[in-house]
Amino acid sequence: MGSTTPTSKLTNGDPTIEPAKKHPAIPLFSRPKSALERDDWTVDLPSTEHVSFFRATDWSASLLGPLESWSLALRLQTFTLFADSRSSCIYWGPDKVAIYNEHFAVLAGGAHPYLMGKTFKQGFPELWGDIKDKFDLAEMTGVSEDVMEIPLFTERNGFVEETYFTGLFIPIRDMDGRVGGHYNSTHEVTKQIIAERRSSMFKRLTIPSHLHEGTLSEYVIPFLESNPRDVTMALLYEVDEETSNDCQVFLRGSIGVPVGHEIAVEKANLNSSKGLIPLLREAKSGILTLPVDQTFDGVEWRGFNEPSKHFSILSLSCVGRLFGFLVVGANPRRAVDDDHQQFMRDLAIKISNVAASIVTTEESRLRAERLEKELTDRERQIRFMATNASVGMQQLSVEGDTIWANEQYYQLTGHPRPEEAQYKFSFLDVFHEEDIDKARDSWSRLIGGEPNVSIELRLKRVFVPLSGDPEPACLLALSFPYIEDGKVHSIMTCTTDVSQLKWAESIEARKAADAREAKRQQEEFIDIVSHEMRNPLSAIFQCADMIQLSLAECETKTSPDELFSALQSNADAAATILMCANHQKRIVDDVLTLSKLEYMMLSVSPRPVQPATLVERALRMFDADIKSHDIQVTIDAEPSLEENNVDWVLCDPSRVAQIFINLLTNAIKFTRTEPDRQINIRYGATPSHPRNMFPDNICWAPSQKKLDDLTDGPEWGDGELLYLSLSVTDTGVGMTSEEIKKLFNRFKQASSRTSIKYGGSGLGLFISQKLTEKQGGEIGVSSTGKGSTFVFYVKARRTVPENPSIASQIYRTTKVRSTSISSRSQANRVDLNKIHVLLVEDNLVNQKVLCKQLRNAGCIVHIANHGVEALEFIRETPLWYQQQPECKQLDIILMDWEMPIMDGLTCSREIRALQEAGKIMRHVEILAITANARQEQIQNALDSGIVRFRMGT
To answer: Which of 244, 712, 870, 871 is the most buried (most CB within 10 A)?
Structure first.
């Protein structure tokens, strides 16, 4: 803005170059404003509907402010954006506010038109965590950051579509030279990604060759399962070729279709009308694609866990020969277009080739058997047939020289070809060292005149199985002498590679052994559980019988001491019943937990907790047991808690407590019979290296899978990652190293004496290991023959006491309570010495037990057998707006969940609706008494108007 005119940079100081002509300066106050400098600078933008939408956006309500306030740099970038033919978007300012062109609007899918003027985080909240670092790095380095093949589910073409995009974020400058925003250019790579996924799928399907034991289903079903998004369900049918006049189809495999489903016909004539059979008949000449209808209800769709919109039926045929049919569910988030049809054609060709190969291989095997039976023919005939055989064939002289061998023999054995050096008995060099003596013995038998010798021999060549470690290849050799004039002239040998067959046999043998062992363990487990359930049940029967007979005995007793003794005996019997019932409950809980683990139904729900509180609450459950056996328990907090300033952590307290309770139960069980009865509990937390918190001699349970970081879920927040650790040391009987190895197996205990002397199902430690793995941790043990130390750690996060989900429940409960209190008059206050309770319960035994407990506590109890009777009772109380002359009092409702006619949740909702409508004049508390205590069930009860929740009958 100064008066001195700078020298033109074009001259570079060279006097030979004429400087640029100077134009007379125009004073700022008289110079006309350019289009970018005018207030309505957007008039020069392209005249399109999208630009009109851009101008109509209420920018004054956005973080960028009104259009006339935008900086010159942002205006320039906006002009560039709307001139760009690529799908592009500008994210401006520290909050990354979006401005995008019409091409980007198509890619934005459901985010358009909301995205215009909103921040990236608002428009794409699910991507913000991944993309934020891209913004930061591009702004820090000044260089663009690439985003490769990011998956998005875009709502377009009338449905939510699976899409993938690649783009880059270019930092762009503001007028002050600093990075003011990012220019994002994106293009779609969906077709390439899906094509690669399908290509990778096809590479997994191997076409069988040589001798095999696999069926078509064993090859095809795992291949289809490898791509759940493009194959959401499948049915594989084979055709019986031998009955061409009465063609039969057989279901050989399925994916996602339950057994017995109406579309999964096990066996049918191709001319029948069962299930999908008519459609198979229609698809006989090619591929048939149809929309999914109600006949597919009940199918367990894979991929996106949503029903497919279409399915295809593929005819599996090759060279005019029909092998079967394949029914395939289509990707519900991709259009059924030319790409889909090509995928179906490729799928049909690939599987048809596998079917043809299996048939061809089987036919080749049969042909080889026929050749082996004809090897007694003349040498010319043998060579002619052997040259064209699919098995290895060799002719040896009686001196051990190779006279002739076909190519297949050299391929199978790895023996040097004829052009390489060969010598007498060189054919023995191909065999494994341990099998050479066996080969020599068979040679001696053949030379001695034995008509034929069949033998399996291992090779030095290595066979690489589909799974497991490489092992020596194996040949099945059938040898016999070629005899003329009663004299052996040569030895003929046919060899077949049976490596895969032997590997499969060993696999099946191991599976059978594992199955027998699993059956044995299961039977042993059932015996143990039956024993552990029946023993306390017998004690319950005896104690209950003793209590029942005590009334008649008390009638004959007169002195207070005798009556007190009878009461003391009844109290002891009741305590025994409670102990036996708790024992049975622990076993049932173990079995239920195991069932949830087996079927992947056990979830981890994080909640804020203090480690000390968690330990103390769990320990409090064992107060009576500890005192009765005079066990000294000490609790020590690790220095790591103070060193790392750990107070509140986010974890699943119930799952952690379940592991701790299992360990503490064992410690008490194995310590209570010892002369020295001590248990030490230590707990701590560290942000890293959890194993370093424990002694070096800990034997860690072998993990069955890689430990996942479950704390990455959104419900875990963003607190610092911690490892919560806990150990239980006892002075019990201890274990040997061999016993420790058995500890964490299902249905296993350290030794047989453990079950006999101490009882138990053998599930506790197995479940504890699975629970620690589920929570990203490990469990281990050490024992030196006297006493044991069990340790474990789980993943957690640092947090504060308040948790939004808990706070919301407290708010709802507090709100209901405050409404209840404010609506009550002084006259309606509850007399705590005489509470009127309505018990809504359909089970007569539960009614009897609860009524007795409540009346013993001084309550006045009324009974309703279901929700309808409960509503009728409320109409007879002062709560009802039309009061009866003689009213029944009501202070609180105890509500069962599962009942006939009207269940507890329905009744609770009806009570709250009547209260809202003014039919019920004041609030009444409802307590749910139920065993349904999963988090979603608790939430369902709260939403129904139940403000308290109690584990019940």
So the answer is: 870
Cβ(477)–Cβ(405) under 8 Å?
Answer: no
Q: What is the pLDDT of residue 820?
A: 38
For residue 370, what are the CA distances in angstroms to 117, 156, 379? 80, 62, 16
Residue 846: CB atoms within 10 Å: 15
Count the neighbouring beta carbons within 10 Å of the beta carbon of residue 688: 9
Residue 448 in tokens: 């001695």
41-188 maps to which CATH number? 3.30.450.20
Contact (CB, 8 A) for 149 and 186: no
CATH second-level architecture of 374-497? 2-Layer Sandwich (3.30)
How far, CA to CA in Å, does 536 sit from each of 588, 662, 758, 910?
13, 20, 14, 43
- Amino acid 802: pLDDT: 61
Every domain range in the chain assigned CATH 3.40.50.2300 = 805-951
Domain with CATH 3.30.450.20 in the chain: 41-188, 374-497
d(CA 817, CA 797) in angstroms, rounded, equals 33
Task: Tell me which amino acid residue 822 is.
Answer: S
Which residue reads 């380095």 in tokens? Answer: 141
- How many angstroms from the chain centroid is the CA of residue 376? 61
Q: Give residue 67's pLDDT.
A: 93
Element (H, E) at 55: helix 49-56
Burial zone of 443 (CB within 10 Å; 0-12 exposed, 13-18 middle, 19+ buried): buried
In 3D space, the residue among 82, 74, 84, 78 whose CA is nearest the CA of residue 167 turns out to be 84
Angle of helix 764-774 versus helix 560-598 axis, rounded to 10: 50
pLDDT at position 824 is 39
Q: Say which CATH superfamily domain 199-366 falls into.
A: GAF domain (3.30.450.40)
Convert 461-485 into a string of H (helix), E (strand) and C (coil): EEECCCCCCCEEEEEEEEEEEEEEC
Taking the complete model, does pTM exceed 0.70, yes or no? no
Topology adopted by domain 805-951:
Rossmann fold (3.40.50)
Could you give the residue range(s) of every CATH 3.30.565.10 domain in the chain? 603-799
CATH superfamily of 603-799: Histidine kinase-like ATPase, C-terminal domain (3.30.565.10)
- The token pair at 95 is 């909050």
* Helix-strand-coil split of the chain, %, nearest 5: 45, 20, 35
Q: Which of 816, 810, 873, 869 is nearest to 842 (CA)?
A: 869
Residues 427, 477 contacting (CB under 8 angstroms): no
- Which residues partner with 480 through β-bridges? 492
CA distance linking residue 886 with residue 876, whole number of Å: 8
Which two three-digit tokens encode residue 550? 């005590």
Radius of gyration of the chain (CA): 40
**Tokens read off for 62:** 């956005």
Distance between CA atoms of residues 350 and 327, nearest Å: 15
Q: What is the pLDDT of residue 579?
A: 63
Q: Give residue 24's pLDDT.
A: 47
- Cα maximum dimension of the chain: 137
Residues 6+ apart with CB under 8 A from 633: 619, 626, 678, 679, 680, 681
What does the angle CA 425 – CA 430 – CA 434 come to, to the nearest 5 degrees? Answer: 95
CATH 3.30.450.40 range(s) for the chain read 199-366
C-alpha closest to that of 159 among 315, 304, 346: 304
User: Token match 């040898």: residue?
Assistant: 479
Q: Are 503 and 465 in contact (CB under 8 A)?
A: yes
**Residue 163 to residue 727: CA distance in whole angstroms:** 49
Single-letter residue type at 886: E
Low-confidence ranges of the chain (pLDDT < 50): 1-31, 244, 599-600, 747-760, 803-827, 950-953
Query: How far, CA to CA in Å, does 821 sit from each of 524, 818, 914?
Result: 58, 5, 18
State both tokens at 48.
Answer: 């399109």
For residue 125, the SS3 value is helix
